[in-house]
Design brief:
Chains A, B: This is Protein GrpE. Two copies of one chain form a homodimer. Chain A has 167 residues and is an alpha+beta fold. Chain A has four helices and five strands.
């Protein structure tokens, strides 16, 4: 565009020069229309792909997360098979399975959180009981009924807790 | 360039008419350049959004899938708490937890598959043993060592199996 003649120059041009300029500009218009249409087509294709991809990504992630639990399932089946022969080992098996399940959740980004002794925080705790306990400041988590998994933006649920309160 | 007038309409146009045409075309070029640039900018923004969205979708799906397991974790903790007081109930608790874990996997789209008696299929089965069994056709799944979860495109793993074979 920097080579465009200014108006005052243009009007002094001979008809032949102007005709050439018209042809040049017509070519430029055709070229730009083509580019514009291609960009619009790309945009349209990308929009369509986005919605297809989102459901594919979702499916993949669900499968990936689910696959992490298969060893836990296998151990549950194994523990059940042995439950009849060796009842005393069942509690031990259960403990190992629990540890394994905690590991899976931690690997997925949601470690078990122990809030005992923490300052009560409504974003992280849901109080289901209140107790007074000498020497403990108000609003301290005395007991965790159900633990939280994950923290901050990645908290799966708040912990259910019993909180201290002055008499 | 020849100075001879060519025999087309353009050269017969008055310089003023041509100059108007040049101005029109210049406006059109400017307009098209603007549209093209805006389409490219939209495309660029969409591309950036796509990669941000994919990781957000992934995180959300992982959290959703992980949250499904929390009741299983809670029951594992509960069963462990009671294991000391009432050992006989542990096997029962384990069975209930196993059922619950199967339900979660099924809800996520990966039901436990029982392949006993099925025709051996390398896409669905991994043979870890071979047995001959009278009256059973070759390549029949006799025993499932580890079950598959899900099927077809949604299979998390093939089943580990023992297969029949003629002597």
């Amino acid at each position: 565009m920097s080579e465009e003649p200014r108006d005052d120059e243009a009007v002094r041009q001979e008809p032949d020069g102007l005709q050439e300029r018209v042809t040049e500009l017509q070519d430029e218009v055709a070229e730009l229309q083509d580019r514009w249409r291609r960009a619009l087509a790309d945009l349209d294709n990308l929009r369509k792909r986005v919605s297809r991809d989102a459901s594919r990504v979702r499916e993949e992630e669900r499968a990936r997360a689910a696959a992490e639990w298969l060893p836990v399932l296998d151990n549950l089946e194994r523990a059940l098979e042995h439950a009849g022969n060796d009842p005393s080992s069942v509690a031990e098996g259960l403990r190992a399975i629990h540890e394994q399940a905690l590991d899976v959740l931690a690997r997925l980004g949601f470690p078990r959180r122990d809030d005992t002794g923490a300052r009560f925080d409504p974003a992280r705790h849901e109080a289901v009981g209140v107790l007074s306990q000498e020497g403990t400041p108000d609003g301290t988590v005395l007991h965790v009924v159900q633990p939280a998994y994950g923290d901050g933006e990645r908290q799966l649920r708040p912990a259910t807790v019993v909180v201290s309160k002055a008499e």
